[in-house]
């Protein structure tokens, strides 16, 4: 396709990319931003001097690739955040040190400078003083723990 004299395709592509970028500020769904990325590719291809149809194909392919590959991962990252765990639930998964033998009756462990009542997660287990334990669950004010085996 022949373009009129003085027509700069790269400027048209750049204008389209800027317009799509500004419209994205109102939608915030990242679709128009991916189309703007395709328009930038169209602009870059136009600088090589190829025909308009090649520029359009390159822009469409780049837009579809951005919509299919980049957008899902970016949206997933934006919509997930760190899990905020408060209170005694924050202890689950941490390690403690047995300060009083832990048996099915009870015992005590030290976790982060605090003393907690503890029972073994497996009722048949007895965990000696000085052993490291993993906290599996908190029931009320009692930690259910499991002995961490030590090498050697």
TrEMBL record:
Task: Name all NfeD-like C-terminal domain ranges.
Answer: 89-145
- Which keywords appear in this protein's UniProt record, sorted alphabetically? Membrane, Transmembrane, Transmembrane helix
Which residues are listed as membrane-spanning?
6-23, 30-47, 53-70
Entries under InterPro entries matching the protein: Membrane_assoc_protease, NfeD-like_C
- The answer, when asked if Membrane is one of the entry's keywords, is yes
Q: Per the UniProt entry, what species is this protein from, by scientific name?
A: Nocardioides panacis
Q: What is this protein called?
A: NfeD family protein
**A single Gene Ontology CC term:** plasma membrane
Q: Which Pfam families match?
A: NfeD (PF01957)
Q: What is the lineage of its organism?
A: Bacteria, Bacillati, Actinomycetota, Actinomycetes, Propionibacteriales
